[in-house]
Amino acid sequence: MDLKTRIRDVPDFPKPGILFRDISPLLADPVAWKDCIEKLAHFVAPLKPDMLAGIESRGFLITAPLSLRLGCGFMMVRKRGKLPGNTIPHTYQLEYGTDTIEIQDDAVKPGQRVVVLDDVLATGGTLAAAISLLRKAGAAVPGSACIIELEFLEGRKRLDVPFGSLVQY
């Protein structure tokens, strides 16, 4: 199935000059959505993950069903202040300023294999930060994946793990 036909272009969102790639039509089509999860499973399963880490917030939509499909755990990588209890933070550089992401301090055990997922790879900053955060927590990160890769932004160059995407622009 050509998943690209289930992704809607939204011009000038969230601001003028941006072409947003909306996965809502993909999520609404149960046949396409199942195919998407199966294709991700085909890439992720050989990495032998113990856990999958989903990046807030659309990454959660991908990671939860994929973790069930692969029979492994699911953890959330969230913006600062969104997780209860003790957390491990990681601050990273943005184009203009910094941001901080966190995981709960008991989300990963040292040496666990954690694959990181999100909906879109753009510049690679958030995905690279999530990989660094998980390593700081003691995880081994054998790979990462997204549904969409915006190749012209060259985000893949910021990643030091195998990366897979299903749709490229």
Q: Overview of this structure, please?
A:
It is a single chain. The model has no long low-confidence stretch (mean pLDDT 97). Helix content is 27%, strand content 33%. The protein is of the alpha/beta class. The two termini are 17 Å apart. It has one domain (3-168): 3-Layer(aba) Sandwich (Rossmann fold). The strands form 2 sheets. It has a 7-stranded mixed beta sheet with strand order 5-6-4-3-7-8-9, with helices on both faces. A two-stranded antiparallel ribbon has the order 1-2.
How many discrete structural domains?
1
| Annotation field: number of helices | 4
CATH architecture: 3-Layer(aba) Sandwich
What CATH calls the topology is: Rossmann fold
Shape estimate:
globular
Please provide the ordered H/E string of secondary-structure elements.
Answer: EEHHEHEEEEHEE
Low-confidence stretches: none
Structural class call reads alpha/beta
Helix content: 25-40%
Strand percentage, roughly?
25-35%
Biggest sheet descriptor: 7 strands, mixed
Q: Which CATH first-tier class would you pick?
A: Alpha Beta
Radius of gyration: 15 Å
**How far apart, in Å, are the first and last alpha carbons?**
17 Å
Mean pLDDT: 97
Number of DSSP strands? 9
How do the strands line up in the largest sheet? 5-6-4-3-7-8-9
Q: SSE layout and pairings?
A:
Layout (H helix, E strand, L loop, with lengths): L7 E4 L7 E4 L1 H5 L1 H15 L6 E5 L2 H13 L2 E7 L7 E8 L2 E8 L9 E8 L3 H12 L7 E6 L13 E6 L1
Parallel strand pairs: 3-4, 3-7, 7-8, 8-9
Antiparallel strand pairs: 1-2, 4-6, 5-6
